[in-house]
Amino acid sequence: MAELLDAIEIETAPSPAASVIWLHGLGADGSDFVPIVRELELPQLPIRFVFPHAPLQPVTINHGMVMRAWYDIVGADLARREDERGVRASQSLVEALIAREKTRGTPAPRIVLAGFSQGGAISLQTGLRHPERLGGIMALSCYVPIAESLAAEAHAANREVPIFMAHGLYDPIVPLAAARRSRALLQQLGYAVEWHEYPMPHSVAPQELDHIGAWLRRVVA
To answer: Is 63 tagged catalytic?
Structure first.
């Protein structure tokens, strides 16, 4: 059993009936997206938001500096020399968080995986392979990691899972073309992807938060 990551938790109402496990990006921590919960307009939905802290590890592209990361990044070409071992290790960490939510009484169909950048990549990596149907997968400003393995490893249980993907038109970190290739791959494999593009860099836009809130209300209602 993988270790259970430390996390920040917020409940929008007592006795939450759904859980959103939200993964931060490279170099951030679980507090990064905490402030947006109140902006999603979910007061009538009892949801537990879980914002885990990624492990500390050296990151090659950042001169080996130790920071919170879901996997190592060797260079700007994200699909080249991928840290497959690190991606799969973080997949196991997220699986442990899913299992913990189930022990708290939240069934898999009421659990949503969400993430930004690296966190979004791990949400896709984990959610599409999870053996039980999840409530949804939200992947912001990211791409499908280990893309060549997805067709063989994807689990049928999540073939129809709702997927929300969003990206900035001016993203200098994860190029828009890379995200579009990931969307095309998912669509080729039969996934229904709700896709949004915004005039922003590697960040989150106000209109995006409106769309995220509307999507969450649909998938957890």
So the answer is: no
